[in-house]
Amino acid sequence: MDNLEVQRAEEPMTDLMKKHVPVVTVIKQEPLTVEVHVGKLLKHPNEAEHYIGWIELYSEDKLLAKAELTPVSTEPVVTFVLNEKVTKLKALEWCNVHGVWEAEIEIK
Ligand SMILES: [Fe+2]
Predict the structure, then answer these.
(1) Which residues form the domain of 85?
(2) Does residue 104 surpass a pLDDT of 90?
(3) Do residues 96 and 51 touch, judged by C-beta distance below 8 A?
(4) How many CB atoms lie within 10 A of CB 108?
(5) CA 25 to CA 11: how far, in whole Å?
(6) Is residue 15 in some structural domain?
(7) Average pLDDT, the chain
(8) Is residue 71 situated within a structural domain?
(9) How confident is the model at residue 89 (pLDDT cuts 50, 70, 90)?
(10) What pLDDT, on the 0 to 100 scale, is given for residue 1?
(11) 77 C-alpha to center of ligand 1: Å?
(12) Ligand 1 mean position, distance from CA 79 (Å)
């Protein structure tokens, strides 16, 4: 699989999609606090041979934050606190076997 191709979930979601699509949840409005959880719908492996390597958060095309993850030692769940108004957030994550996956949410 080409690791540079960005993949998204579609309905109906397959198990592969459930394991990889980042789930973005607003935890708090002021300041805007969001959790990005990979494998929330179906747990993704977390082992030396197969793991989630990083999670990025974007507003439009602006990178807001990136979390590098160490396999086995950390879970692919990250909380970000934002200091600016955004209307949309996009999360990307990278699996070393299955490539880059993205999800977007609207912020009200
Ligand atoms: Fe994977």
Answers:
(1) 6-106
(2) yes
(3) yes
(4) 6
(5) 19
(6) yes
(7) 95
(8) yes
(9) very high
(10) 46
(11) 15
(12) 21
In a domain, 1, yes or no: no
Phi, psi of 49 (to 5 degrees): -90, -15
Q: How far is the CA of 80 from the centre of ligand 1 (A)?
A: 23
Task: Give the distance (Å) from ligand 1 centre to CA of residue 108.
Answer: 31
Eight-class DSSP state of 18? H
Distance (Å) from CA 43 to ligand 1 centroid = 10
pTM above 0.90, yes or no: yes
| CATH number of the domain enclosing 59 | 2.60.40.730
Task: Give the DSSP H/E element, type plus range, for residue 23.
Answer: strand 22-28
Least confident of 1-10, 45-54, 70-79, 90-99: 1-10
Which residues neighbour 18 within 8 Å (Cβ) at sequence distance 6 or greater?
9, 41, 42
